Amino acid sequence: MSGEPSEAPSSLPPDFVWAPLVPELLVTDIAASLAFWCGLCGFAIAYAREEDRFAYLQREGAQLMLEEIGEGRHWITGPLERPFGRGLNIQIATSSVAPILAALRAAAWPLYMDVEDKWYRAGTMETGVRQFLVQDPDGYLLRFSEGLGLRPCEG
Length: 155
Hints:
Mean pLDDT: 91
Shape: globular
Number of strands: 8
Largest sheet: 4 strands, mixed
Oligomer: single chain
Structural class: mainly beta
Radius of gyration: 17 Å
Low-confidence stretches: none
Helix content: 10-25%
């Protein structure tokens, strides 16, 4: 990962599949957000509308939209104050948290919560994840999560 966002493709990638749930995050500086999301977190631009300061990103099936405040159509329900997205953390499944952690550490980007292995009860099973939390340039809280498998509940 170079630390630089990838160029926006002229058309959608041939294997592109629309996700059924895609958050759209309003950001204060699209360039800074793309440097974080693409350069450090490994997302790629599926498509962009530069005139709207908008980008649609994807990484391993996870998708999100970024749009700079004041450039397009917005559905703002209240005052926007940093950190944005208070009360929300966005879980992003990934095959490995290691490369993202390495890029963030190389850029001296602070983690909100360091990496941990955690098991959560799901019915009669536990699902394991290796996860960490980080805030993007506008304060959105992101939880990158690598699956560790399933096991029977203890006790």
